[in-house]
Specification:
Length: about 250
């Protein structure tokens, strides 16, 4: 199971974000009326295969909140004093169901049974600093795969545009009479890289990408190229290749 939201605590609300879209999940933030304390535990405790957010408060409540911001049936649980601990989850009595554990500021520890199956994928490692090293830094999206597109017409003026290239580094535009799996020979940049072109490959141009990783190659295409010539670009720094397109 992948958790695609992450609760954060501030003022008296708990927020759950979709990390992919950077938006607050529908039904959130959750108003806890008093201060949430410690860190939430994220576990499926009602056994519906969707993880729930469990938080303790300084008014002594333990909430379990579903993905949609709704409090689960049977919650909140009530402690006699403020909790400052956050919530821990585990199967502490060996019945293969999770228990929730929280403590109070005056020294008591509470544990509650749940109906959540204590399966390995149900409770995530609580990575409070985003990742296992607690760096607090969100991973950046992986760079986009290099793409090649043809603008203009054949025959006539055309522009071959690549994106996703290493900024300010060279891009080679290659062309061939057929598709294939030609391996760049030793002694060349990116030797050993397998192209999507056949052995008739030749270099049409080498162009520097701009600061955004976009490169452009402008050419006037003769009519005999149309429908006959394939093109592919390669990032000469990262040695990533684009898809192959047929000039037409
Ligand atoms: Ca659930
Ligand atoms: Ca148990």
């Amino acid at each position: 199971m992948t958790v695609n939201y992450r609760p954060t605590q501030g003022l008296d609300k708990v927020y759950a974000y979709n990390l992919a879209t950077k938006t607050v999940l529908s039904g959130w933030p959750f108003d806890v009326w008093s201060w949430p304390k410690g860190y939430p535990a994220i576990t499926d405790i009602d056994n519906d295969n969707l993880q729930d957010v469990c938080i303790a408060t300084d008014s002594g409540e333990l909430f379990a909140i579903a993905y949609d911001g709704q409090v689960l049936n049977g919650f909140p649980k009530v402690m006699h004093a403020a909790s400052i601990s956050g919530v821990a989850v585990g199967d502490i009595d060996g019945d293969n169901l999770f228990e929730l554990v929280a403590s109070t500021s005056d020294g008591w520890v509470y544990a509650w049974d749940t109906t959540g199956a204590a399966l390995p994928e149900r409770a995530d490692w609580p990575m409070r600093g985003v990742n296992a090293r607690y760096t607090g830094v969100q991973p950046q999206s992986p760079p986009a795969a290099p793409t090649l597109e043809m603008l203009g017409s054949c025959p006539g003026k055309a522009r071959f545009k690549t994106t996703g290239m290493t900024p300010n580094k060279n891009v080679a535009y290659l062309y061939a009479k057929g598709i294939g799996s030609f391996k760049v020979p030793n002694g060349n940049p990116c030797a050993g890289i397998v192209l999507g072109l056949n052995q008739s490959v030749a270099v049409a141009a080498i162009v520097s990408a701009d600061g955004a990783g976009i490169a452009k190659f402008d050419v006037r295409l003769p009519s005999n190229a149309c429908g006959n010539i394939y093109m592919q670009a390669i990032d000469l720094n990262a040695c990533n290749t684009t898809d192959v397109i047929l000039i037409q």
